[in-house]
């Protein structure tokens, strides 16, 4: 429903809609229109607040119903309100309206417009992905208690005004290492929920490494059976793997939240677990011992053996078949046990295999040394501010996702006292994670070649969900803002982040209370 006249509304519904001129009350909104992470493009506060009540309905056309369902699921637990989803709201009913339609090319596929009036929240976008992004903004405009899992008594107000918003980069990613310690499908889903709040739209799953193999591959069943056996995590802790059904379910769950899964099988290095399961993948045909330490750079596929390429093609084919997203990550990092010439031989055959199965090849930035990488995406994880090999590949067409280890690696400790995490790339406090620009970080790679940014979370020291959350939050929010927002302002981010703390508390998220931030509550 559209109610253009706030004054008329005030006359019609004096009890539920505050007139625009009402004096500020003690129940004034706790949040302001500007307190959103990532920072929106345009924020124009003004006008009366919207009040969510037990009579509020969610209006959505059939095509936007799944987004409306996500919104209702997000708002029902804490409010206890029914929030029915209807195709058309009755007149004068307080409504949150979700509509797709032409709202301008500037907003693209992920942008949205949000208008908050006394009796209506009007959310519009070109597509459902944009509506979903707007829903995440709307959640942050409600009081922090909206994230509680059981009913709370609150005035559920949304500050009045308008937001126009759309992303800076197309790729805003997070990565979770399933290999060093396996994290269950439910844990991955919880992480998807947590990152989707910050408009992250890719989740890269590191599915195989020296310690373990975490995805069912039917043509090579021992990969998961042996490589995913109990005890295959670092220090012999944990183990496990995703069945194809579980993986497909995760892909769907992520897609419902506008997140695309990017699977990674790391090769030609990081393959000890595969070689334990299939000794023919070594040059001498002898199985290496299983490894649960955290060394890197000691294993390699046998570049001269044909079975290597049968293996690689089978894995790529099966992964591509269960992955609707455009990217397939083939690792390529830290191949110290592969000679440089062998590395090039390997990538020359393997990069095109990804295209053969309809996917865009994606790898760590070392792949840029291979000419076939010109059609690929390279993920930059180096510490330097230039990289001649990558820059040369970029001139041939390679595109870049930025994950500098000393800025964007969520597994690095915050400071020497941090109980978990590694520190080889340096300590990364919140401000360090925030204070850089993915578009200009590499002096020899133009911003136009940068697809976006990703925050990897390696799991050598992470066993539980609480460990994941402690290292990811709040830094993931910083990286997400670099990916989404064109504005960049530490003081603004710092105060919005401080205000976000109670939301993580309400969700039971074990975030790190950095002393750089004045946490509210
Ligand atoms: C380097 S970064 C790795 C991983 C480790 C990580 C730990 C990269 C592409 N490879 O094998 O898990 O450091 O921080």
What's the short version?
The chain is 30% helix and 15% strand.
Name the features.
521 residues; alpha/beta; Chitobiase, domain 2; TIM Barrel; eight-stranded parallel sheet; 15 helices; binds ligand TNX
How would you describe this structure to a colleague?
With 521 residues, the protein is of the alpha/beta class. The chain has 2 domains: 5-165, Chitobiase/beta-hexosaminidase domain 2-like (Chitobiase, domain 2, 2-Layer Sandwich); 171-484, Alpha-Beta Barrel (TIM Barrel), CATH 3.20.20. Helix content is 30%, strand content 15%. It is built from 15 helices and 17 strands. An 8-stranded parallel sheet has the order 12-11-10-17-16-15-14-13. Strand 3 (57-60), helix 2 (65-79) and strand 4 form a beta-alpha-beta unit. Helix 2 runs parallel beside helix 3, helix 4 (185-196) packs parallel to helix 6 and helix 8 packs parallel to helix 9. The radius of gyration is 24 Å and the shape is elongated. Mean pLDDT is 94; it is low at 1-29. The chain binds ligand TNX. Residues 296, 333-334, 364, 381, 405, 409, 411, 422, 458, 460 line the site of ligand TNX. Ligand TNX binds at residues 296, 333-334, 364, 381, 405, 409, 411, 422, 458, 460.
Number of domains: 2
> How many helical stretches?
15
The tally of beta strands, per DSSP, is 17
Give the helix proportion (percent range). Answer: 25-40%
- Average pLDDT across residues? 94
Q: Based on helices, strands and strand pairing, what is the structural class? A: alpha/beta
As an assembly, this protein is single chain
Bound molecules: ligand TNX
CATH class of the largest domain: Alpha Beta
Q: Ends: how far apart? A: 37 Å
| Adjacency order of strands in the biggest sheet | 12-11-10-17-16-15-14-13
Question: Which word captures the global form?
Answer: elongated
Strand count, sense and closure of the main sheet?
8 strands, parallel
CATH architecture of the largest domain: Alpha-Beta Barrel
Could you list the spans in which at least 5 consecutive residues all have pLDDT below 50?
1-29
């Amino acid at each position: 429903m559209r109610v253009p006249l706030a004054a008329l509304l005030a006359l019609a519904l004096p009890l539920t809609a505050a007139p625009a001129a009402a004096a500020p009350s003690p129940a004034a909104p706790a949040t302001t229109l500007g307190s959103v992470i990532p920072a929106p493009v345009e924020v124009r506060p003004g006008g009366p607040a919207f009040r969510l009540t037990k009579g509020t309905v969610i209006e959505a056309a059939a095509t936007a119903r799944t987004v409306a369902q996500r919104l209702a699921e997000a708002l029902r637990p804490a409010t206890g309100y029914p929030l029915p989803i209807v195709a058309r709201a009755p007149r004068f009913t307080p409504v949150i309206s979700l509509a797709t339609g032409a709202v301008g090319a500037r907003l693209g596929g992920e942008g949205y417009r949000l208008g908050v009036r006394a009796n209506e929240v009007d959310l519009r976008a070109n597509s459902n992905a944009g509506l979903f992004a707007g829903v995440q903004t709307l959640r942050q405009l409600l009081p922090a208690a909206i994230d509680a899992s059981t009913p709370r008594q609150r005035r559920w107000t949304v500050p009045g005004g308008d937001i126009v918003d759309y992303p800076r980069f197309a790729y805003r990613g997070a990565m979770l290492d399933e290999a060093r310690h396996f994290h269950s499908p439910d844990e991955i889903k919880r992480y998807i929920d947590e990152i989707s709040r910050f408009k992250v739209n890719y989740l890269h799953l590191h599915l195989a490494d020296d310690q373990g193999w975490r995805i069912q591959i039917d043509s090579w069943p021992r990969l998961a059976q042996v490589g995913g056996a109990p005890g295959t995590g670092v220090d012999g802790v944990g183990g496990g793997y995703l069945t194809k059904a579980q993986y497909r379910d995760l892909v769907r769950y992520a897609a419902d939240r506008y997140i695309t899964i990017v699977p990674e099988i790391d090769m030609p290095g990081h393959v000890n677990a595969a070689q334990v399961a299939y000794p023919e993948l070594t040059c001498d045909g002898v199985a290496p011992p299983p490894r649960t330490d955290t060394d890197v750079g000691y294993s390699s596929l046998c570049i001269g053996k044909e079975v290597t390429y049968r293996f690689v093609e089978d894995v790529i084919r099966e992964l591509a078949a269960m992955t609707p997203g455009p990217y397939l990550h083939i690792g390529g990092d830290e191949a110290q046990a592969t000679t440089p010439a062998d590395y090039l031989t390997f990538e020359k055959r393997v990069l095109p295999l990804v295209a053969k199965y309809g996917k865009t090849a994606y790898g760590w930035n070392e792949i840029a040394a291979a000419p076939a990488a010109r059609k690929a995406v390279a993920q930059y994880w180096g510490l330097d501010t230039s990289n001649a090999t990558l820059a040369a590949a970029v001139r041939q067409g390679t595109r870049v996702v930025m994950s500098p280890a000393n800025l964007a690696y969520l597994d690095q400790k915050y400071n020497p006292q941090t109980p978990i995490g590694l520190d080889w790339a340096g300590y990364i406090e919140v401000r360090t994670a925030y204070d850089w620009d993915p578009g200009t970080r590499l002096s020899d790679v133009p911003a136009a070649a940068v697809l976006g940014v990703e925050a990897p979370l390696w799991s050598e020291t992470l066993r539980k969900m609480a460990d994941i959350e402690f290292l990811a939050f709040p830094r993931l929010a910083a990286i997400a803002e670099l990916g989404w927002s064109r504005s960049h302002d530490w003081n603004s981010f710092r105060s919005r982040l401080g205000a976000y703390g109670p939301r993580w508390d309400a969700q039971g998220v074990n975030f790190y209370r950095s002393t750089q931030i004045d946490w509210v509550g």
